[in-house]
Specification:
The complex is a heterodimer of chains A (163) and B (574). Chain A has four helices and nine strands. Chain A folds into two domains: 77 residues, ACT domain (Alpha-Beta Plaits), CATH 3.30.70; 71 residues, ACT-like. Chain A, domain 2 (Alpha-Beta Plaits), CATH 3.30.70. By secondary structure, chain A is an alpha+beta fold. In chain A, the strands form two sheets. In chain A, strands 5, 6, 7, 8 and 9 form a five-stranded antiparallel sheet that branches. In chain A, strands 2-3-1-4 form a four-stranded antiparallel sheet, with helices on one face. Chain B is of the alpha/beta class. Chain B has three domains: 173 residues, Thiamin diphosphate (ThDP)-binding fold, Pyr/PP domains (Rossmann fold); 168 residues, Rossmann fold (3-Layer(aba) Sandwich), CATH 3.40.50.1220; 178 residues, 3-Layer(aba) Sandwich (Rossmann fold). Chain B is 36% helix and 17% strand. Chain B has a six-stranded parallel sheet with strand order 3-2-4-5-7-6, sandwiched between helices. In chain B, strands 11-10-9-12-13-14 form a six-stranded parallel sheet, with helices on both faces. The longest helix of chain B has 15 residues. Chain B starts with a strand and ends in a 7-residue tail after the last strand. Classes of the chains: A alpha+beta (163), B alpha/beta (574). Chains A and B meet through helix 1, helix 2 and strand 4 of A and strand 6 of B. Chain A: Belongs to the acetolactate synthase small subunit family. Chain A: Keywords: Amino-acid biosynthesis, Branched-chain amino acid biosynthesis, Transferase. Chain A: InterPro entries: Acetalactate_synth_ssu (IPR004789), Acetolactate_synth/TF_NikR_C (IPR027271), Acetolactate_synth_ssu_C (IPR019455), ACT-like_dom_sf (IPR045865), ACT_dom (IPR002912), AHAS_ACT (IPR039557), AHAS_small-like_ACT (IPR054480). Chain A: Catalyzes the conversion of 2 pyruvate molecules into acetolactate in the first common step of the biosynthetic pathway of the branched-amino acids such as leucine, isoleucine, and valine. Chain A: It is an enzyme of class 2 (transferase).
Chain lengths: 163, 574
């Protein structure tokens, strides 16, 4: 099963490589990885999506928690949560296809953020499956480049991941 | 307020932390620190001949004393040479602090002379590591390193120290930090009360219980509580290799150790048990054999200080995260509250165990008679007798290690010192040296083989310099015995590279360092040599014992089988 694990990590040199290194050392799987500072300058937040059975996910969370640099950890998929990913895509947009791409962008509630005579650069946010669906929709037209941030997430309701 | 350079802070901190010995080897990036050590008398430095030996010396000391061993090496090759020793300590959860010199900060990343990213290289084999960013933080970082190394589940901590951080010209205020706090690190000590109660209920109800104790009992100082619990409940006790000595082996309730080369009765008892109380163990593959066939009828209670050890390989029915001594004492408390339980209901279980014991008693090998070639097993038994079972026993890795574990009976913890998890050949000599140096009046016996010994034999020079009188028993079978055994069993006796041609003349080799070696071939020679060896407690003596090269270690788990599936000799199996 797919899990989204969010971690508050000490904002120290080497902390990220410890967390990420753990996955390859122990043969765990990383599908997406997203990391950025938080409002607290001493902490960064790392979100990883991974897959595995219950035993493996339990090991992943335990091994991560054991790292001295990991301050707090939550498996967002254990409860209701919001998951978002941002993607920038360069799509071919000539002649008749130009309108077709524009329509697809509107249907997906995406935005065109840069324009050239032959290319639209599209920004789209949503969960991973929405982004995948957009890519399949515009694939026949011609995708030139894709940049995805990886999943970021937060729990719904009162639950808060903070120190 | 005192102003000290980074290097002087390190020396002073080590003194304030109560460190007596540092094991190491100097080099460019560490020279400021070496100069600081030179200018003081409190912390003594032991110069090894290879950095790996420094880590094993520190490791041996840590295993015998329970306190972190301290290593000092230079950058680049000094630090990379230490990696095997760091990994050895990591696998066996041994407290160690490794101070590594590093090239000056402004050179880091430029492929400077003797530069290695040692924090990166050691990342998978340390509990934690630090890089010093400012000299003023040295005392705090060192305190954190010692705290992390020795608390919770212990392990090695690397501190990377760029040369400019120790420059004699830059001085900062030094205060010894008595305590440090890390917001993300709070090792659990007390176990969950509800879970502990549940564990006690299960133990009292069990008809075929076994206690399985490991290194966590030895290093968690829980041996006494464990012994008390086992005796009050009349439950048999087996240990992992790391747990040897956690329960007195001379005792009726001791089953010896379990696993691939564990005792017949321990493996049989585990397989037939209805309850396993695992304490400070990690159910590793050398214990369980095939996990899917492991203890098919048993419920598992697992006490460990490291939550990630629990349910990692074997699912625990009652997981208890906590320090072994705390949890066991809580269990003892709960048992005392109850009426004295009648433990006659374990009679049937004990009958089975005694039967298993009887089946194999005295049948594991045939000792050599007068004038015959010695069996390695009987050499260990003779050493056990000569030392009254009271020596520190250190091993290298291979057949001799298994024989030492099988035939030396331990009655107290911290006496068995062996690289169990990583299985590091070459570990033995320096580890034994680390112990003898700190316990000069005790007997420290190294069981080694001619293969392992040659991996670290340069350390004889260190023994000479510091007068370290370890007793070395070389079980010389002229081959890499364990490799050979596997080749006999699995490769139709094709002995690929397991035969040691051109062995040195050990008498001449030891003589070159000014030590005595005695060649031993028969039981009579062995008795005389042992008497001679232990007559001089402070003298290094090397016994080159020529043993039967065809001997195999038995019992041995049948691959992919359950714990009861064992080869018992070259011709018998369960």
């Amino acid at each position: 099963m797919r899990h989204i694990i969010s971690i508050l990590l000490e904002n120290e040199p080497g902390a990220l490589s410890r967390a990420v290194g753990l996955f390859s050392q122990r043969n765990f799987n990383i599908e997406t990885l997203n990391v950025a500072p938080t409002d607290d300058p001493t902490l960064s937040r790392l979100t990883v999506t991974t897959t595995g059975d219950e035993r493996i996910i339990e090991q992943i969370t335990k091994q991560l928690n054991k790292l001295i640099d990991v301050v707090k950890l939550v498996d967002l998929t254990e409860g209701a949560h919001i998951e978002r990913e941002l993607m920038l895509v360069k799509v071919k947009a000539y002649g008749a296809q130009r309108d077709e791409v524009k329509r697809t962008v509107d249907i997906f509630r995406a935005q065109i953020v840069d324009v050239t005579p032959g290319i639209y650069t599209v920004q789209i946010t949503g969960d991973a499956s929405k982004l995948d669906a957009f890519l399949s929709a515009v694939a026949p037209v011609g995708i030139l480049e894709v940049a995805r941030t990886g999943v970021s997430g937060i729990a719904r309701g009162e639950k808060v991941l903070s120190v | 307020m005192e102003l000290l350079s980074g290097a002087d802070m390190i020396a002073r901190f080590l003194k304030d932390e109560g460190v007596e010995y540092v094991y190491g080897y100097p080099g460019g990036a560490a020279l400021h620190i070496y100069d600081a050590l030179f200018r003081q008398d409190d912390v003594k430095h032991i110069l090894v001949r290879h950095e790996q030996a420094a880590t094993h010396m520190a490791d041996g000391y840590a295993r015998a004393s329970g306190k972190p061993g301290v290593v000092l090496v230079t950058s680049g090759p000094g630090a990379t040479n230490a990696v095997t020793g760091i990994a050895t300590a990591y696998m066996d959860s041994i407290p160690m602090v490794v101070l590594c010199g590093q090239v000056a900060s402004h050179l880091i990343g430029e492929d400077a002379f003797q530069e290695t990213d040692i924090v990166g290289v050691t990342r998978p084999v340390v509990k934690h590591s630090f890089s010093i960013r400012h000299a003023s933080e040295i005392p705090t970082v060192l305190k954190k390193a010692f705290y992390l190394a020795s608390s919770g589940r212990p392990g090695p901590v690397v501190v990377d120290i760029p040369k400019d951080m120790t420059a004699p010209t830059e001085r900062y205020e030094y205060v010894y930090p008595k305590k440090v706090k890390l917001r993300s690190y709070n090792p659990v000590t007390r176990g969950h009360t509800g879970q502990t109660k549940k564990a006690v209920e299960l133990l009292l109800k069990a008809k075929r219980p076994v206690i399985f104790a490991g290194g966590g009992v030895v290093f968690g100082k829980a041996s006494e509580a464990l012994t008390d619990l086992a005796r009050r409940l009349n439950v048999p006790v087996t240990t992992s290799l790391m747990g040897l000595g956690a329960y007195p082996q001379g005792d009726r309730q001791s089953l010896g150790w379990l696993g691939m080369h564990g005792s017949y009765e321990a493996n049989m008892a585990m397989h037939h048990a209805d309850l396993i109380l695992g304490v400070g163990v990690r159910f590793d593959d050398r214990v369980t054999n095939n996990v899917s066939k492991f203890c098919p009828t048993a419920k598992i209670i697992h006490i460990d200080i490291d939550p990630s050890s629990i349910s990692k390989t074997v699912r625990a029915d009652v997981p208890i995260v906590g320090a072994a001594n705390h949890v066991l004492n809580d269990m003892l408390g709960l048992i005392s509250e109850r009426e004295q339980e009648n433990r006659d209901d374990l009679d049937e279980w004990w009958t089975s165990i005694e039967q298993w014991r009887g089946e194999r008693d005295g049948k594991l090998y045939e000792p050599a008679g007068p004038g015959e070639t010695l069996k390695p097993q009987q050499v260990v038994e003779a050493v056990h007798k000569a030392t009254d079972g009271d020596a520190y026993v250190v091993t290298d890795v291979g057949q001799h290690q298994m024989f030492a574990g099988q035939y030396y009976k331990f009655n107290q913890p911290n006496r068995w010192v062996s690289s169990s998890g990583l299985g590091t050949m070459g570990f033995g000599l320096p580890a034994a040296m680390g112990i003898k140096l700190n316990y000069p009046d005790d007997d420290v016996v190294l069981f080694t083989g001619e293969g392992s010994f040659q991996m670290m034999m340069q350390e004889l020079s260190t023994c000479k310099q510091f007068g370290i009188g370890v007793k070395i028993v070389n079980l010389n079978n002229q081959s890499l015995g364990m490799v050979r055994q596997w080749q006999d069993l699995n490769y139709k006796s094709r002995h690929a590279q397991s035969y040691m041609e051109s062995l040195p003349d050990f008498e001449a080799l030891l003589g070159a360092y000014g030590f005595r070696a005695i060649t031993v071939r028969t039981p009579e020679e062995l008795d005389a040599a042992l008497e001679e060896t232990f007559k001089h407690p402070h003298e290094l003596v090397f016994l080159d014992v020529q043993v039967d090269p065809r001997e195999h270690v038995y019992p041995m788990h049948v691959p992919l089988g359950s714990m009861r599936d064992m080869l018992l000799s070259k011709t018998e199996r369960t």
